[in-house]
């Protein structure tokens, strides 16, 4: 098998490949075949997936075959996301094409990957144990996730925990961290050297940009982690950093609500989620000051055995 | 004289996870989760482990002593709540 990273492709080779036979990108634990003639997609992949491996066509199977296609060239150009020739979403503005690819890949995993239980959450690791941050949009999850990664935590995912229902371990799938609106500037100020991809304006989520994952997170993407902490974050402007123990029954209910597919596994899915809650310390965290919140996370003790 | 007993007709459908603060029951037939108080967990656990109970027997077992009329009435309320959730059925014997 021929292994090259995106960054080792010749100048212009990435956009040529994307516009032609496509690129088979190893996005652990998946291989995703991507095609697109839209320049912003090539720009985003080139910057944010520079260290990800792209596999030679003849050697590799792909879990998903996706494309972002230009639908209308003139007068408010539009693009469409496609998987196996099927377009599951209405078209978006062409300027959102890279963000559309990211959202589309998330959809592929949550819609079709059912050997693992997917939970809408950020997941990071420290000392071999996983921190799961399940949260609805607007809770500040992604900002926290980016900040924790910049402060030494290994990123497993900013979007979904992939829980093995048999082993109880979370499988890493490190991809660019999606940030919105003021969070973009906050994280850029925190880490001026962080690599960001193209900015999409006026999306349904506002302004969106993605931040490249740390090299350590990608280098250790083969190392799963056992959950130890379940924290439900809530950003509240002006608040102090307020952690509270969250009752386990309520934690299990919320974890299940944030799961896309535990029902596919029936009783075994429920039992798997229950084991996560049982072995984890569970908290609500209200915060507004990112450095204070990071400090609290950094001092979280491991759960009692 | 008729006696009302309560039983869980679908024991194999339920998975109960409980902690010191209460618990959650999963109904595999309907795919729903339900959060329970600690007391409700204890009652449901008894129902899952024995074929049928009167409300007096359940209250007695939980309290470890003869229950008051009020306590039996509270147990009846809880069992009717379980009945509404399709967890248990009442049988007149």
Could you give a short description of this structure?
The complex is a heterodimer of chains A (305) and B (93). By secondary structure, chain A is α+β, with helices and mostly antiparallel strands.
Helical amount among residues of chain B, as a percent range? Answer: 25-40%
Could you tell me the strand content of chain B as a percent range? 25-35%
What strand line-up does the widest sheet of chain B have?
2-3-4
Average pLDDT score of chain A: 94
* Count of strand segments of chain B: 5
- Uncertain spans of chain B: none
The number of distinct helices of chain A, counting runs of at least 4 residues, comes to: 9
Strand content of chain A: 25-35%
Query: How is the main sheet of chain B built?
Result: 3 strands, antiparallel
Radius of gyration of chain B: 13 Å
The general outline of chain B is: globular
Strand count, sense and barrel status of the largest sheet of chain A are: 8 strands, mixed
Oligomer: heterodimer
Please write the string of helix (H) and strand (E) elements of chain B.
Answer: EEEEHHHE
Mean pLDDT of chain B: 94
Task: Give structural notes.
The complex is a heterodimer of chains A (305) and B (93). With 305 residues, chain A is of the alpha+beta class. Chain A contains nine helices and 18 strands. In chain A, the strands form three sheets. In chain A, strands 8, 9, 10, 11, 12, 16, 17 and 18 form an eight-stranded mixed β-sheet that branches. A seven-stranded mixed β-sheet of chain A has the order 1-4-2-3-5-6-7. In chain A, a hairpin with a 2-residue loop joins strand 8 and strand 9. In chain A, 46% of the residues are buried. The mean pLDDT of chain A is 94. With 93 residues, chain B is an alpha+beta fold. A three-stranded antiparallel β-sheet of chain B has the order 2-3-4. A two-stranded antiparallel sheet of chain B has the order 1-5. In chain B, helix 2 crosses helix 3. The longest helix of chain B has 16 residues. Chain B is globular and about 40 Å long. The chains are: A alpha+beta (305), B alpha+beta (93). Chains A and B meet through helix 7 and helix 8 of A and strand 2, strand 3 and strand 4 of B.
